[in-house]
Design brief:
Layout (H helix, E strand, L loop, with lengths): L2 H21 L19 H25 L9 H11 L5 H21 L8 E4 L3 E4 H23 L2
Antiparallel strand pairs: 1-2
Length: 157
C-alpha cells in the first residue's frame, strides 16, 4: 500500500469520527469545557479549532512541498489559536461541518499531488518541530482524532 493510501485511510477515519461527534451533539453540549480550568476550551471552540487547524496545516504543507520551509520561527501558536477562535465565534455546527469537509477535500487533493521525492522533505510544524511531509500529514489526522477523543470522553459519546 502506498504512503498516500495509508494516510488517506487514517484521514477518512478521523473525518468519520468528526461527523459522528457533530451529528450527536446536543445544544447543551456546546459550552461544556473539555479541559479543566478557566482557560479550557468548550466543545464548540474545540470544533472550530479543529477545522481551522486543518486549513492552516494544509497551507503549511504546501509551503514545505514547494519551498521546503513550513511555519515561520516567528509564528506564535498560542496567540494564533486565541485570535482565530475569537474570529470564528459566530460559526455554528453546520458552518464548522461544511468548512471541515471543504478543508479536508483540499488536504486530500494535496495528498494526491505529493510525489515520491516529496515525502521526506522537511519543514517546521507550528508546535511540533521540524518534520517530513509524511509526518505532517499524519499529524493532521492525529490532531483531529486527539481532540475528538477528548470531546467523546467528556460527553460520553
Amino acid at each position: 500500500m502506498s504512503i498516500a493510501s495509508e494516510i488517506k485511510i487514517h484521514m477518512d477515519k478521523s473525518m468519520n469520527t468528526f461527523e459522528h461527534v457533530i451529528d450527536n451533539l446536543k445544544d447543551e453540549d456546546l459550552n461544556v469545557r473539555i479541559n479543566e480550568g478557566e482557560k479550557g476550551w468548550t466543545v464548540i471552540e474545540l470544533l472550530r479549532h479543529i477545522q481551522n487547524s486543518e486549513r492552516g496545516m494544509t497551507t503549511n504543507l504546501k509551503s514545505i512541498i514547494n519551498k521546503g520551509e513550513g511555519t515561520s520561527t516567528e509564528f506564535d501558536l498560542q496567540k494564533y489559536n486565541h485570535t482565530s477562535n475569537e474570529k470564528m465565534k459566530d460559526l455554528g455546527l453546520s458552518d464548522i461541518k461544511e468548512n471541515m469537509k471543504k478543508y479536508r477535500k483540499i488536504t486530500l487533493e494535496l495528498l494526491k499531488l505529493v510525489k515520491e521525492e516529496d515525502w521526506e522533505k522537511e519543514g517546521r510544524h507550528p508546535s511540533q518541530g521540524t518534520y517530513s511531509v509524511k509526518r505532517h500529514f499524519e499529524i493532521i489526522s492525529w490532531h483531529q482524532y486527539h481532540h475528538l477523543k477528548g470531546i467523546k470522553t467528556k460527553l460520553n459519546l
